[in-house]
Write a structure and sequence with these properties.
The protein is α/β, with parallel strands linked by helices. The chain has two domains: 226 residues, Aldehyde Dehydrogenase, Chain A, domain 1, CATH 3.40.605; 182 residues, Aldehyde Dehydrogenase, Chain A, domain 2, CATH 3.40.309. The protein contains 16 helices and 18 strands. The strands form four sheets. Strands 10-13-14-9-8-15-16 form a seven-stranded mixed sheet, with helices on both faces. Strands 5-4-3-6-7-17 form a six-stranded mixed sheet, with helices on both faces. A three-stranded antiparallel sheet has the order 1-2-18. Strand 6, helix 8 and strand 7 form a beta-alpha-beta unit. The N and C termini lie far apart (58 Å). Bound molecules: nicotinamide-adenine-dinucleotide. The site of nicotinamide-adenine-dinucleotide has 29 residues, from helix 7 and helix 8.
């Protein structure tokens, strides 16, 4: 079906009011949970085919995240949907004022390939909870997951309200030419600009969930514990995670210890040959593989560095002696290469981060409260985390999104509901007892005096 007809059909359905009731929204969220429960094996199979993801990693980082979002929405939906009373100033009384959350209408959700299930279905939770109809466009680069979503979604969700459109640039371009009520895009900065321009034609609001170079700063505290958590966040999904630490900033004395500890953590997680580990993923395609292998020469390999193109396997790799001007340090790495850059202290680390585009996340590893205060007070980033990385996304109550170059808007939990709702203000004043009479012209001296006193 063409994009225009698809949108027209969903608009008609939305206009019928079918998606407005809390009962419909709940049904859809339950259906989504059923899909994830009953089809878990098919889902993990598709993710393994696309990215070599292990079943456990797929469960933790994709399925469980969507389930947590849906559970959270079901628990809080009544409160989110309830009108919110707003106080009316004395001079305008008697009157009532409130805001009510209205669905936006028909929304478009465009997903990337790295968490191809989570990053389409987690926004969908918000769109459904808010009572919208939605068109989903999964990434063609994760073809197995895209095909699976196209097959399963219509079996579980209301097919008049949710549709999956498969395809690449052409399909996206067709969809973006339509006047959707919101476009929710997750992916890279280059396409983010294309999406925003296309949406501007229709004055369609956008959420842009982009990426960037998220730093991890290690200054004081247990370096081995930091290394384990950094290695976990970095090498999950073979480093293809938008909030993975892109590089590490640490002091010259800690750098060699940290490099060793990172190598140890990798051995612990994936054994001495991660290629043989079922828990270590693969690079999405040859193009990204070649790009990443090209970056290996931008520094000295401290550990890892082996690769096998036929399998798109790239070993978890730690690099030192990197040039801040190299491609490795200029572009988002989005793969299992972790450069360590040396800085004198926390102050220099914060300066280093501040001199670059705002990252999606910034991580601080330190046991000192004053370091955290300093970091939280001065670092501009989509989100911050202290002594952990990436797992902050699993807290549905915490908004997730970028700032500046790392994105616009946010979601998760209540923020997802708000992203896909219009908070409509309503003001209601009875006609009896016309207190506005005082504000009607003509304005004599007495009225002026009274109005000034009242307002
Ligand atoms: P991608 O290439 O899969 O593109 C994302 C989507 O955009 C796909 O559905 C694709 O079909 C569509 N697209 C591609 N070219 C297009 C065009 N010319 N016009 C319209 N649509 C087009 O994914 P990607 O961009 O390589 O994703 C990786 C990036 O996404 C990284 O920068 C990463 O940091 C970021 N990311 C951000 C988040 C987040 O939540 N903030 C999550 C994951 C990934």
């Amino acid at each position: 079906m063409g994009a225009a007809r698809l949108l027209a059909g969903q608009r008609r359905y939305f206009a019928s009011g079918a998606t407005r009731s809390a009962a419909w929204r709940r049904d859809q969220l339950h259906a989504l949970l059923r899909l994830l429960g009953e089809r878990e094996e098919e889902v993990t199979g598709a993710l393994e085919q696309d990215l070599g993801k292990s079943g456990t990693e797929a469960f933790l980082s994709e399925i469980a995240v969507v389930r947590a979002e849906a559970d959270h929405a079901l628990r809080h939906l009544d409160r989110w949907m309830a009108p919110e009373r707003i106080a009316v100033p004395l001079g305008l009384r008697p009157a009532r004022a409130w805001t009510q959350a209205r669905p936006l209408g028909t929304v478009l959700i465009i997903g990337p390939w790295n968490y191809p299930l989570q990053l389409v279905l987690a926004p969908l939770v918000g769109a459904l909870a808010a009572g919208n109809t939605a068109v989903l466009k999964p990434s063609e680069l994760a073809g197995s997951t895209s095909r699976l979503l196209a097959r399963l979604v219509p079996l579980y969700l209301d097919p008049q309200a949710v549709a999956v459109v498969e395809g690449g640039v052409e399909a996206s371009t067709d969809l973006l030419a339509q006047p959707f009520d919101h476009v929710f895009y997750t992916g890279g900065e280059r396409v983010g600009k294309i999406v925003m321009k296309a949406a501007a034609e229709h004055l369609t609001p956008v959420t842009l969930e982009l990426g960037g170079k998220s730093p991890a700063v290690v200054v004081g505290g247990d370096v081995r514990a930091a290394a384990r958590r950094i290695a976990y966040g970095k090498f999950m999904n073979a480093g293809q995670t938008c909030v993975a630490p892109d590089y590490v900033l640490t002091t010259p004395d800690a750098a060699p210890v940290l490099a060793d500890a990172l190598a140890d953590a990798v051995r612990h997680f994936y054994g001495s040959d991660p290629r043989a580990s079922h828990d270590y993923g693969r690079i999405i395609n040859e193009q990204h593989f070649d790009r990443l292998v090209g970056l290996l020469t931008d520094g000295t390999v401290a550990s890892g560095g082996r690769y096998e193109r036929a399998e798109r396997y790239l070993e978890p790799t730690v690099l030192r002696d990197v040039d801040p001007g190299s491609t490795l340090m200029q572009e988002e790495i989005f793969g299992p290469l972790l450069p360590i850059v040396e800085v004198e202290d926390l102050d220099e680390a914060i300066g280093f981060i501040g001199a670059r585009p705002h990252p999606l996340a910034a991580y601080l590893f330190s046991d000192h409260e004053e370091h955290l205060r300093e970091f939280a007070g001065r670092v501009q980033a989509g989100g911050l985390a202290h002594n952990v990385c990436t797992i902050q996304l699993a807290v549905p109550g915490l908004p997730f999104g970028g700032v500046g170059a790392s994105g616009t808007g946010s979601y998760h939990g209540r923020r997802s509901f708000e992203t896909f709702s219009h908070q409509q203000p309503v003001f209601s004043k009875p006609t009896r007892l016309d207190t506005l009479r005082l504000a009607y012209p003509p304005f004599g001296p007495l009225k002026r005096k009274l109005l000034r006193r009242l307002l």
